[in-house]
Structure formats: structure tokens, C-alpha cells
Amino acid sequence: MLFNSYEFLFAFLPVTLAVFFLLSATGNRVLPIAWLVVASLFFYGWWNPAFLGLIGFSVAFNYLLGLRLAQGRLNDDGQHVSVPLVLGITVNLGLIGYFKYAGFLTSMANHAVETEFRLGDITLPLAISFFTFQQIAYLIDVRRGETTEPSFLRYCLFVVFFPQLIAGPIVHHKEVLPQFAREKIFRLRATNLAIGLTIFAIGLFKKVVIADRLAEMAIPVFATAETGATLDFFQAWGGAFAYSLQIYFDFSGYSDMAIGLARLFGIKLPLNFAAPYRATSIIDFWRRWHITLSRFLRDYLYVPLGGSRRGKIRRYGNVLVTMFLGGLWHGANWTFVVWGGVHGLMLVANIAWRAAFPWHINRWWSRAMARAATFLAVTLAWVLFRAESFTGATNMFAGMANLPKSLSGQIGPLQDVMTNIGFRFQGGVALTGTNIENTMWLVFWIAFLWAMPTTQQLMARFRPALGYPGPAATRRDPPAPLQRLIPCLFWRPSPVWAGLFASIAIFALLHLNRVSEFLYFQF
């Protein structure tokens, strides 16, 4: 079931919310939690009921191992407590390995030894990467003595809570479950409804109005690249920038909807986006993009590998390994692995540059240059991420260097320089109506991201995401340029704001004529 579907918006969500608070009104605190678990499993099974057994096994298996780890730790049984942890990590990664990577590994083996062994069709279970990583983190946290969960029902809710089940954020047990122990979440609060519905409306608008429109610009270009057809400069760059913006608005929209849905129940989820396209370096980008995945990779892979504690060379190697595996997490394709490797190399270069030249980017023009350079580097890397094959990616990059024929002979000695570094002058007409229109839209949305407040900045007075600093902590999250010009641009419960976001919600609902999945559902 999709957040952007009629079934979810007009049936599942209102029924789930109403029954939760009706059961809460009885004074029983078990029934509302049980209802959320059942509703969340129904939400998951809507896509394919066959995989309810898989997620059920995963939840039960990891819960029992968590109990064993907690008991072993309490008994100071250090020698044996590591056995269930290793078993848990092995089984969890084994499930992902089979469903997500078995075909990929088989193909590589066939190529290496020149065989033609074939596996049957393996359907990738929805959200397996997310709920598996979440439970691996739980087992490690239990082993470290940071958390534990004796209640099977509450553990089920931790894993399957529907706002964050399908595409994150990847939450820690100690972040979410203690919130369900608070008495106030069982009382229907108008403020939570207003905040949650506003954030959800913003996310829905991002997905169905912006991201899906940008997809119409990106999909044909990448499809053409896969056929081997020649692309010109404006086609290739337009497609790359369109996808860069599409994946931002798509995943940012999902994350907003997840936070908004959880807030309807009085729950705060951790932030997954913090204006990543305003980043002034690749290091900064990964502190802002898919924050909970970056946190998981840092805490459970990079740091255990040694982090930055064992010298520069080891640190650089740890960064590369982490990013290669982070790329592989996204999908069983070499393009994802190379994408992760490219980001690893950029991170290594960024770290080395900061060590050699510890300058501060503290002027508006230096920030603007750093932001533009980072956004360009990220967009170029997205080509590898989006392309279905290296052939498609290569054709996209070739198109980016294919300037219009009309420029040939018009730019003097610069043409020879550009030709020597790989540019060609074989493209079509530079300025067409479609090129102009698409370019104007892309420039508008880039300016929108850089100037307008993020959802969290807009809602800052109410700190809707877990751990968000709020409007006073301007050093951690300074107001967007438009908020500096218009200081009152912070949301509050009022008829004006209600009317504005009701209009946004209605406009988004009118665009639900073609329901499309979120991009991160495939991961």
C-alpha cells in the first residue's frame, strides 16, 4: 500500500487512527499497541501477503536472540553472548543475500567460470533492507547494553510501525519505543493532528506534484541512453538534473509523510533529510542525505572497522569499504557499487583536502561556490545510480559533452581546448521550446531548494522530528534565505496556515490520477 494512494488516504489511515484512539479511550494500553501491529502488518501484506511469513520470522527470530543477548549480558556471560549476535547478523544478512543478491552473485559466478547456472525468479520482499538493518542495529545495541525489549508485542511495533516500515527512517529501539510508554500518546491531541497532517500534505505535494513531474523529464532521457542512441548536451544535462531533483523530492516527500504520519499518533521519528543540496562538501552532504542510513553505516560498519583511529591510510580504506557496501545496499548492480565507490573517493578527497587546507567557508560567495560544486558532483554521481547499465551511464556522460553543432567555429581557440578534453560539437539545436521550458523548471526547483525553508525549518517551533534543534539553534540549522527576509515564515496553528496547506493537500490529491511507487521502495 502506498502513502499516495486512495486506499491509504481514505480508508486505511482514517480507520487505523480512529480505532487506535477509540481503544486508547478504554484505558487499556495493550489493545492500542496490538491494533497498530495488526494494522501495520495489513499495510505490509497489502503488496504481497506471501511475505508476511518472512517478516514474521524475522521479527520472532531477532526478538528471541535479543532476549538471549540481554540475559547473557546480565549474567556476564561474555564468552557465549557473542554467539547469538554472530548468528543473528549472519541470518539477517543471509536473508538479504538470498533475496536481493543471489541472482547477482550467480551471474558473476557464471561469468567467471563460464557456466550457465540459473536460479528461479526471486521476488525481492518489500523493505527487507530497512527492517533487517534496523534489527541488526537492535541486536548490537542489546549486546552493548544500550537497550532491551522484553515485550514481544512492543518489539513487533518497533519493527513494523507502518509510517517507517517501507523506506525508513532506520530507527533505533531506544528512540521510538520509549515514546509509546508515555501516557500522552494515547490521548487524541489537536496539535498533533494539525502538525502531522501539515507535514504529510507537504510530503504528498513533493511526491505527486514535483517528483512525479520531474520523472517525466528524466525517464525518457535515461531510456534513450540505454538504447545507445546519441544524446546532446541539453538532453543529457536536463535528464541528469531532472533525476537529481526527482530523487530528492521523492525521498524527501516520503520522509516528510513518514514523520507526519507518526506525529498523528504522537510519535516523533528521527530526521532523514536536512537540506542535502545545500551541502558545501561531500562530507556535509552525507550528514544531510539519508541521515539514518549514514548513521547506521558509521556506527555499525565504519567505526567497528577502525574509523579514523588507526592512521590516515586505514581511515581512507575504511571510508571506501563503507561507501562501496553502502552502494551495494541500494541494489544488486555494479552501477550501485561504482556509485558508492565514487562517493567514497570523493569523501577521501574531501577529508584529505580539509587536512591539507583547513580553510573555513565563511563568506556568502565561498558558500555559494562550494554548494554549487557539491551539487554538481552529486548530480554527476546520480547518473551511475539511475542508469540501468554502464552503457546507459556512458551514453549519458557522452551526451553531456556533446555540444550543439551551431557552436562549432564560433568560440575560437576554446574549441580546440574543449575538443582535446573530450567535448564534441555534434548536438542538435541549442534552443528549442522544450529545452527552454525544461531548463526554466529545473532552475526554478534548484532555486526553490536553496532559498525556501525545509519542512523542519518551516515547522521549527514544534520540532516535529526527533532530535531536531528548533528555531533557537540557528548554528545547527540556520533559517533559509527566505525566512531571513520574512521572519514570520514559521508555521503555527492558524486559519491562514490551515487554509494554505489545505489548498496544497487538495492540489496534491487532484494529481493522484497516476499512482507511482517511491524510488526507495526498490531498495
Strand content: under 5%
Q: What about the largest sheet?
A: 2 strands, parallel
Helix content: 55-70%
* Overall pLDDT: 88
Order of helices and strands: HHHHHHHHHHHHHHHHEHEHHHH
Cα separation of the termini: 16 Å
The chain-level structural class is mainly alpha
The gyration radius over C-alpha positions equals 24 Å
* Number of helices in the DSSP assignment: 21
Number of strand segments:
2
Write down the overall geometry.
Answer: globular
Low-confidence stretches: none
Query: What is the topology, as strand order, of the major beta sheet?
Result: 1-2
In short, what is this structure?
With 523 residues, the protein is mainly α. The chain has 21 helices and two strands.
Written overview of the protein:
This protein has 523 residues and is mainly α. Among the domains are: 6-188, no CATH class; 281-371, no CATH class. It is 66% helix and 1% strand. It has helices spanning 6-24, 30-45, 52-74, 78-113, 128-143, 152-160, 162-165, 173-180, 190-227, 233-264, 282-288, 291-302, 312-330, 334-356, 364-386, 390-400, 414-420, 433-451, 455-458, 481-485, 495-509; strands at residues 402-404, 424-427. A two-stranded parallel ribbon has the order 1-2. Helix 17 links the parallel strand 1 and strand 2. The two termini are 16 Å apart. 39% of the residues are buried. The mean pLDDT is 88.
